[in-house]
Amino acid sequence: MKYGVLSKSLLAAAALVVLGGMAAAANADVISSASQTTFTSTIQVNLTNQGSVDWIDFSDQTGTTLGTPIAMAGGSGIGKVTFGSTGNGNKEITNFPSQFTWTNGPSGINGGNGTNNQGAYVLTSSPGTISFDVTGDGNAEALTVYTRVYNGSKTTPLSDPLSATFTLSSGGTGSPYTVTTASQGTYQGVGYIDTVNFQLAAGDTMNVVLTTPQNSSNIAIAAATLADASPVPEPASLGLMGIGGAALLLVGRRKRA
């Protein structure tokens, strides 16, 4: 009887260790890191390869309207993009320093294939913001956003950089997380790549706000991608699972004996 009770106790403890470790890894909302880089020359981005979960592209492809992005067929996670400003409205530009391609877009637009190096949606700002929500799926993910800031008057250099702030709806760990870099000092335009690594419980959201504080500058968004970034289990997690597995193995051996 004592042996049976011990076996059941070991089995229960092992299950709690394994399940507890898995639950802790899956349910904690956290922003683990974020970064921002700049570019002034043309970059090439394959949205299909980079956005395994979802992607959007503010393109001028036939079949779309101004401000309505093309999105990954079957993708989900990136919410509606909102533009806020006290400036003079929205328009498209044709000199965004980047080229985006995809092969899994809407089938009704060029058979799901496309290339875009223009048609970014622009907000004249004083200051201006671009914001949207990202909904988690329980896995570790990486969001990358491609934007551009430039001086609409083209008479004075940019003095303030883009600011990107990521905020978890649940509070979570590492929230809010803000990244920014030094201005490039040119009115022609500076491209920004903001990347954030995070993990949300399924259905929880993270709000993204991109802001340019300089009154005379503009902000544009060209594309955003969302990708799975599930990490290799940490040593501590592996140790807990190992303990649980060992306990289960011990119980099984004793039962066979």
How would you describe what is shown here?
This protein has 257 residues and is of the alpha+beta class. It has a single domain (29-232), classed as Sandwich (Jelly Rolls). The protein is built from three helices and 16 strands. It has helices spanning 2-27, 47-50, 235-256; strands at 30-39, 43-46, 54-57, 70-71, 82-85, 90-93, 98-102, 114-116, 120-124, 128-135, 140-151, 163-168, 177-180, 190-199, 205-212, 217-228. Strands 1, 3, 4, 6, 9, 11, 14 and 16 form an eight-stranded antiparallel β-sheet that branches. Strands 5-10-15-12-13 form a five-stranded antiparallel β-sheet, with no helix packed on it. It has a three-stranded mixed β-sheet with strand order 2-7-8. A hairpin with an 8-residue loop joins β12 and β13. α1 packs antiparallel against α3 (235-256). The chain is globular and about 50 Å long. The model is unreliable at 10-26 (pLDDT under 50).
What's the short story on this structure?
With 257 residues, the chain is α+β, with helices and mostly antiparallel strands.
